[in-house]
Every structure is written in structure tokens, then in C-alpha cells.
Amino acid sequence: MLSDEEILSARLLVVDDEPNNVVLLEEGLKREGFTCIKSATDPRNVLELYKDFRPHLVLLDINMPHLDGFQVMEQLIEVELEGYIPVLVLTASNDRQVRLKALKLGARDFLTKPIDLLETICRVRNLVETRMLNEELEEKVRQRTEELNETRMEVIRKLGRAAEYRDNQTGMHVIRMSHFSSALAKEAGFNPEECELLLNASPMHDIGKIGIPDGILLNPGKLEGEQWEKMQSHTAIGGQILDGKENKLMNLAQSIALHHHEKWDGSGYPENLKGEDIPIEVRIVSICDVFDALTSERPYKKAWSVEDAMDFLRENKGKQFDPDLVDKFEKIMPEILRIRDTFSD
Questions:
Q1: Is there a single domain that holds both residue 133 and residue 245?
Q2: Strands, DSSP E only, in 69-200?
């Protein structure tokens, strides 16, 4: 339950072309204790006032010049994406069609003119309390959803790092390359939601390493024959691990795990995809993964310099890597180096 203080702090907007009606309502509501009231006598001003004030309840007259109450409600629907408009209709009409039309447009209740102040205050209090309780519930649901999403993301990040610990004791590679990938995606024109999705999906690119024996994974020499085939199988293993529910994150993570060793010229594995047949998210991750792997120390190799790693990317434009994305990666090198320093081993 809400306290009287909370209810009386509700934002109320009175809309009526008759100034006397506005004064009557404002004074009655203030006497009841409501402290946050705004009004409008010209319905053409309501939309901007509504967007700025975000009232808990609008007391809205129907018969007005320039725009009637129905037209005002239609405007409010346009700015309320969830379709809820908190409107208490004021009308002198007993016409059933008027009431039905108002209800269809989203009106919550009616008051018949001439206004009975006691009835008005009771209805306003009831509607405000319902609105505020719904907002409170929505906020709790939003917070809980955020907590669940963050927990899910943390599990995903730790899953990616668990695979990385097999050959990198800090596990920071997946953190760096995922942030590299998000930065490169932004440069390539991805929107913020798509960049965030790639940031969260890319850490799982090497999850299939879990299924590769240490003798192969940590072998400092060149792998051949059955050992090389076994190493290549980590892409399929990753795809199997991430095969499951149909959602954007897992679908993208599975695609990256399966294809991050494909090459622009078609000489990669496991499906010999070529050029733009390789999803752009995969092409982005491939560049970022290789750059960080080259510039990181491993038990079986020393770290390359940034200059040498960039030379490798340039030399392999059009072979292993998407040429345009390599150019974009080089363009954002200051950001890449900042990320690298932030998440150093």
C-alpha cells in the first residue's frame, strides 16, 4: 500500500478549455493535499506538456475547440509506446457512444459535469494509487529482469574464460577480444544493441577448447595429421555446446564458435566459407581474436609487438581477413590499445 504522502505527491494534469473548471479542479485538489498540479486550457499545448511533465493522471475534457479530448488521447497514445494513457475523462455528455469511444482510446474512468468535487477526489485518489502501484511493480520487474540478465551474462563470460584458462592462466584474452569486437562493430556501423550483443556472444568463441586434450592444445610445435584434425574439431564442439534455445545471443555465439576460423579467401574451416558468406560478426571476431592472440604471451610462444601484429593483418587482407574490416580495425587502433591496457594480463 502507498502512503497518503506518496499519493498526494502524484503529478496531475488538468485539461479543460473553460478556465473556471480548471480553477475549480485545481483548488479542490490542492485542498485535498495534492501538491503537483499543472493545467492547460488550450488542447494544442497538451502533448508537449505531457511529454515534459509525465503526469500520473490527466483529467481531460472532451468537448474543446481546436482539438477535442479524443484527438488529444490519440496524440498521447503516440508517445506512450506501451499503449497506457492515464486519462480520467470529463464530459457533460451521457451519450453511450462517447463513453465507448473514450474507453476504446484508453480512458480509465469518467466524471460527469458539472463536477462533484468529493467524487472527483475519490476517483483521482483511486486512479493515482493504481497507477503508482503499477509503476512500482513495473520497476521491481525491471530490476529483477536486469539482475537475471546480468547473472546470465556473468555466467556466459565465466564460461568463455573457463575455456580460455586451458592455455592462458589469466583468461583475459576473451575479455579483450570481446571489447575489441564491440569497438570494431561500432566502427562498422552496428547499432548499440548489436554491439552489446557481440560483446556478450564473442567470449564463447573458443568454448570448444574444453574438448581438446592438453597434449594437443598446449603443443608448442606445428600440429599435423590426426592432431590437427582434433584441434580443428573445437569449432564443432563449440557449436554443439552452444546449440540450444532459440535466442539472439546463443544463436550468434554458436555462429561465432562454429565459424571463427573461416577465412576470407575460403581456405578456412570447418565449411570453407568465403567472403561475405562468412557472417560479418564472425569476420569481426576473427580479426580481434587473432590480433589479441598474436600480441599475448602463451606458454608456447612469446607476445608479438603491436606493429608486427598489424603487419600480419595487413599482409593477410583479402586472404584470411575481410580487407575493409582490417582497415577499420587499424583506424580505431587508439581505442584498441586503450582496451588492451585496461584489461592487461
A1: no
A2: 87-91, 109-112
